[in-house]
Amino acid sequence: MRSGLRRGFTLIELLVVIAIIAILIGLLLPAVQKIREAANRMKCSNNMKQIALANMNYESANNTFVPGVSKLGCCWGTWMIPTLPYMEQDNVFRVYVGFGGQGFGAPMGNIPRYAAAPNNQVANKRLTSFLCPSDRPKNWNNNVAYTTHNYVLNAGNSNFYQVSTPIGCTGGDPVGTNGCVTFGGAPFGWYEDPAALAAGGDSSPVDYTGGDPNQGMMGRPRSIADITDGTSNTLCVSEVLTAPRGGNDIRGFTWWGGGAGFVTYQTPNNPTATDVMTGGGCGPNSVPNFPCTTTSTSTLPRMQLVRSRHSGGVNAAMCDGSVRFIRNSISLTTWRALGSAQGGEVLGNDL
After folding, report:
1. Range 270-293 average pLDDT
2. 114 occurs within a structural domain
3. In this structure, are residues 182 and 158 in contact, taking their beta carbons and an 8 Å threshold?
């Protein structure tokens, strides 16, 4: 019998080795995922800080914060446009024309919207500085060219009409201790058309179609002096999830006014709170567990709420440029206080 022959692995030994490798992978994979998410969250925080600082640089040059939407409302530019030069996107900024009617006289119908040339060249851009790497970049409405992004500006503690919720309620306060959430001011202007607020109706730029664009009243810019709660106590920017690919769900479509802001009426990532995307769409493929409607009412007016894919909370930048991680467990009163700019509240210890 010959000696010195090599003995191969038995089947049992091979299975044991495979099992050990599988166990090691099972142990390492969660750690790798945590490291990846930590890096994504850090990148997301840095993006928000740059947006908040861009807003402060805009204020230094113009004596006001950027407008949330242009004075013509939904479709003639959002805060993203005037922010671009301060985010190293000046070449993209120069393509866009007619923000808030600039350079155009009456009638308003002559002013190109985001979907009209040359502005569609801007709305087709996917800008990484406005994307959270924890989310998945998508295009809006069945993969047409218009891109979605994750970052939105603070429209206050109540609703996009920037009045009390429910509309017309009295005797309340900015945190809604008695059920009436009084609008406590906001660092950015949104839809301020009192005539459109009857029964919680949609505030829409069609009010000015055919008229003088100079009469537009949306998105009134605020000065830093208007932030009486202090820039370190007032939210500037936070995040939303982009809607699933393939539907007409418009959440995250920040080129459009109704998708470019958030309010603190409900806490972050609240699975039962409803986004009210009036004038847009919720789609058949809405974000799982995040309700959506297109119908604005007096008790549930137009609003978009803060959402993220980060475990346990959302990133948010304050108006002074500092960035915080806000946990989902934050109290509703503290969250609403952070959304107001003139509420005079004392922030809770749960921040």
Report:
1. 86
2. yes
3. yes
